[in-house]
Amino acid sequence: MPTRKSMLNRAIGAITVLMVALAAGAAWCVLQLIVRLDMIGLAPVVAALVAWMSRRYGFAQRWSGALLAAFATAVACTYAQLLLAAATVAAFLGESMRSTLMKIGFDMAKSVAWANLSQFHVGMLVAAIFLSAWLVMRGKPVAVVT
Length: 146
Fold this sequence. Notes:
Layout: H1 4-35, H2 42-59, H3 63-93, H4 97-116, H5 119-137
């Protein structure tokens, strides 16, 4: 049976992986807004970052780690697309992103994000999710952060 300390370390590791995923999604959005090009190619980079963090926090070669990495990658990609949708609406309305986020709500952001995705985008996002899970499951475990 796992000790209380190891369960706490796993919980902190899972929370850290999710926070890194959110930060990666926000960075993806900012980078895309700065360069004004489609940056869907960052999806595998985000997946690799999430997988690396999952492995560093002791989830290497575990199904729980693969599921965590896949979920965190999906969260990062979704977060980036929702922020980009809010930025698109903000540009159309001529308002700040903060005020737009408060006005449009989740349903409209989701609809705009979905409308902006092509089949290639969806394929890249799905491939990134599977890539993160695969990267966690492969190879030898790395040194664990304690």
